[in-house]
Amino acid sequence: MATPVSVLRLPKGPDPNSRGFDPKSPRFIALCRTSISSSAASEADPEQLQREQHARSVLRENFLRCLLSMSNKKVQFHMHEKVKVEATFGASDIDVLNFQVSDLHTPIGVQKEALIRCQDVISVTFDV
Amino acid sequence: MAMRQTPLTCSGHTRPVVDLAFSGITPYGYFLISACKDGKPMLRQGDTGDWIGTFLGHKGAVWGATLNTDATKAATAAADFTAKVWDAVSGDEVLSLAHKHIVKTVSFTQDSNCLLTGGNDKLLRIYDLSNPEAAPQEIAGHTSAIKKALWCNNDKQILSAADDKTIRLWNRSSMEEVKTLTFDTSVSSMEYVADGEIVVITYGKTIAFYNALSLELIKTVEAPAPINSASLHPDKDFFVAGGEDFKLYKFDYSTKEELESYKGHFGPVHCVRFSPDGELYASGSEDGTLRLWQTAVGKTYGLWKCVLPEDLGAENSEQLYTPTPEIKA
């Protein structure tokens, strides 16, 4: 009877908590363009790169603090197709793909719990 | 010592896998994208099947998926009436191209600058990705839904297969039909092999090979069961096919002889493709899985390890995972 070929392990399956594309992988580090493109390392001087990186950190931190301070507050979402809805902000998922909200006021009624797809959102407004 | 094939099962999809495509060979290896009716196409490392990421954004079944040669971009075609272009390194959606009906097929030109799409609105569309706001060029002619469209002849021509039982060859510059092949039955799949200009077409139980430039028939081979997809090995010595009886078949291309058949899937096989180095082939099935199969069974490659008889039982041999032999019904 033929022996089955041995395998070292089974292929790794998806991570239930994330959509993947590990930013620590060599390919990501080498190839990934960030959303605001940075100056090429070869062109800019190290000082300018450092200032740029500092600016990125500040912007990112501000964004995260905004998300934190919106928690449990009434916010207004301005979305595509001239949609304006109000809801109580809950949380964002890790990739900022969905916002969890409560008491979403829509033209067809109030939704107790809902997920708002971030790519549909143009802006979010709230009182600090 | 005869070795039995151990397919590697890639799980993760929750609905049938309907299309898959490999990238070219990149400095980071090669990659595999799978289109699934669960709406979540996945990117995997090609030689191991390890999941890399899931492209999130489609709101309906994804019918077609492709990668550009260096696996930096992905494109998908879905039932939500859009084709999307993705950054295949970060997983971010880059473009969403609205269509008037279900999109079934997407294909990049070699330079990744243009995307060809086709679907249920019976039109072929060419998008200039450096100018996505511009209206795409449209090619009309098919009389029913297009299921597959591919660039060929150095991106100067287009091959399209539709439910109208025809395969048509078009000139990109003139946007005119050059040649048509008509069949008695619906074509289930089409694969283009650039090196050698061969088109692999499947219909019924037949796997047919045509010259891609002239659309002249080279040869046909009959399989034991209706075939949904076939793929020719890069060296053109073998081809593999899979279909309604859930099995994968391996044939000798020159002699047309059936060499092997493999059980493994629990549902019809919808798509099968050889890797760019020819060392393995991947199959996608109604059972929601992808399986990787070795071309040379027993060879050490990827996750497969060749174990010589004297190594089995050696004190310092690594812990190897040997799957329990499947019980034959």
Written description of the protein model:
The complex is a heterodimer of chains A (about 130) and B (about 325). Chain A has about 130 residues and is of the alpha+beta class. Helices cover about 25% and strands about 35% of the residues of chain A. Chain A has helices at about 25-30, 45-70; strands at about 5, 5, 75-80, 85-90, 100-105, 110-115, 120-125. In chain A, a hairpin with a 5-residue loop joins strand 4 (about 85-90) and strand 5 (about 100-105). The longest helix of chain A is centred in the middle third of the chain and has 25 residues, at about 45-70. The radius of gyration of chain A is 21 Å and the shape is flat. The model of chain A has no long low-confidence stretch (mean pLDDT about 90). Mean pLDDT of chain B is about 95; it is low at about 315-320 and about 325-329. Chain B has strands at about 5, 10, 15-20, 30-35, 40-45, 50-55, 60-65, 75-80, 80-85, 95-100, 105-110, 115-120, 125-130, 135-140, 145-150, 155-160, 165-170, 175-180, 190-195, 200-205, 205-210, 215-220, 225-230, 240-245, 250, 260, 270-275, 280-285, 290-295, 305. Chain B has no helices and 30 strands. In chain B, strands 2-29-28-27 form a 4-stranded antiparallel β-sheet, with no helix packed on it. In chain B, strands 3-4-5-6 form a 4-stranded antiparallel β-sheet, with no helix packed on it. Chain B has a 4-stranded antiparallel β-sheet with strand order 7-8-9-10, with no helix packed on it. Chain B is about 0% helix and about 50% strand. The two termini of chain B are about 25 Å apart. The chains are: A alpha+beta (about 130), B mainly beta (about 325). The interface of A and B includes residues 11 and 97 of A.
